[in-house]
């Protein structure tokens, strides 16, 4: 593993995924300042993920055919610009549009970044966990950076959120020098589409749970503990902080016990953590937020390496799906979850989510390690 390129790429990954973490942080402020209901704010999550879900695998196909390292800085700037404009567009439709721009930027970034990460790290579990860690840290930093900014300046302060994108571009530019970025080569080996499809189903289930949590857990705990909008958004610090720990653990646990056993245990633990978060009263529920976040994040980097190993001749496509279509698919159901919350309660939504990681764990039990390339 080349340490400096890995650190640079991981940091750049964090600057992009920071913006994916910003949309859930904005939810309590959009509710408080603009009076949107659960369905309306779920629409923002949908806008951030719909185009990304469809477009990201297409970028994966393109990066299988051509090397496109320039996508990294261009997508970073597009993502930052979309987020910066959120506070300046009071019209609901325009807000959806600029949030969609953020989603397209995320879609363009990840396939090429994952190809670069595989080339830099050699596809090892620990190296890929460091690349993934950058994204999770970006998620974790979103409430830390954004909540104080919005608390002080409201939604009108969002133009300042362009700064992380610019910093990310400056950090990533050294990776674009000749000889640093990987070429678009196709590895020989039999593609196992059946196992890849099953893995994709597992990731979709995880995505639904994670999007549901990031969208509603702040509001839920805010209601249960009588927190302000700022306090509700700050709950995401706990959620994303647990994600950092889980992502870093994933590669190391897989090196010791194997990817699939670790995935199975992690998903069973996530189901138990969700049950505690949903039904245990009082501040103790925050401990279950941490447990759930860690358990859901342990498999994250393992999904990427498994997907790339199941499709050894289509690494870009595998990366586009595992980091794109499957990861953001949960956002497509965000409005349905919002409608369920409006017609019942937030607790009912979280109770429904308990089933999904349990099913993911059962599906992981049917997977086998990819066949080695001869």
From TrEMBL:
<dbReference type="GO" id="GO:0022857">
    <property type="term" value="F:transmembrane transporter activity"/>
</dbReference>
<feature type="domain" description="Major facilitator superfamily (MFS) profile">
    <location>
        <begin position="1"/>
        <end position="372"/>
    </location>
</feature>
<dbReference type="GO" id="GO:0005886">
    <property type="term" value="C:plasma membrane"/>
</dbReference>
<feature type="transmembrane region" description="Helical">
    <location>
        <begin position="346"/>
        <end position="368"/>
    </location>
</feature>
<feature type="transmembrane region" description="Helical">
    <location>
        <begin position="69"/>
        <end position="86"/>
    </location>
</feature>
<feature type="transmembrane region" description="Helical">
    <location>
        <begin position="130"/>
        <end position="151"/>
    </location>
</feature>
<dbReference type="InterPro" id="IPR011701">
    <property type="entry name" value="MFS"/>
</dbReference>
<feature type="transmembrane region" description="Helical">
    <location>
        <begin position="157"/>
        <end position="176"/>
    </location>
</feature>
<keyword id="KW-0472">Membrane</keyword>
<feature type="transmembrane region" description="Helical">
    <location>
        <begin position="38"/>
        <end position="62"/>
    </location>
</feature>
<feature type="transmembrane region" description="Helical">
    <location>
        <begin position="92"/>
        <end position="109"/>
    </location>
</feature>
<feature type="transmembrane region" description="Helical">
    <location>
        <begin position="286"/>
        <end position="306"/>
    </location>
</feature>
<dbReference type="InterPro" id="IPR020846">
    <property type="entry name" value="MFS_dom"/>
</dbReference>
<dbReference type="Pfam" id="PF07690">
    <property type="entry name" value="MFS_1"/>
</dbReference>
<dbReference type="InterPro" id="IPR036259">
    <property type="entry name" value="MFS_trans_sf"/>
</dbReference>
<feature type="transmembrane region" description="Helical">
    <location>
        <begin position="262"/>
        <end position="280"/>
    </location>
</feature>
<protein>
    <submittedName>
        <fullName>FSR family fosmidomycin resistance protein-like MFS transporter</fullName>
    </submittedName>
</protein>
<feature type="transmembrane region" description="Helical">
    <location>
        <begin position="196"/>
        <end position="221"/>
    </location>
</feature>
<feature type="transmembrane region" description="Helical">
    <location>
        <begin position="227"/>
        <end position="250"/>
    </location>
</feature>
<keyword id="KW-1133">Transmembrane helix</keyword>
<feature type="transmembrane region" description="Helical">
    <location>
        <begin position="318"/>
        <end position="340"/>
    </location>
</feature>
<keyword id="KW-0812">Transmembrane</keyword>
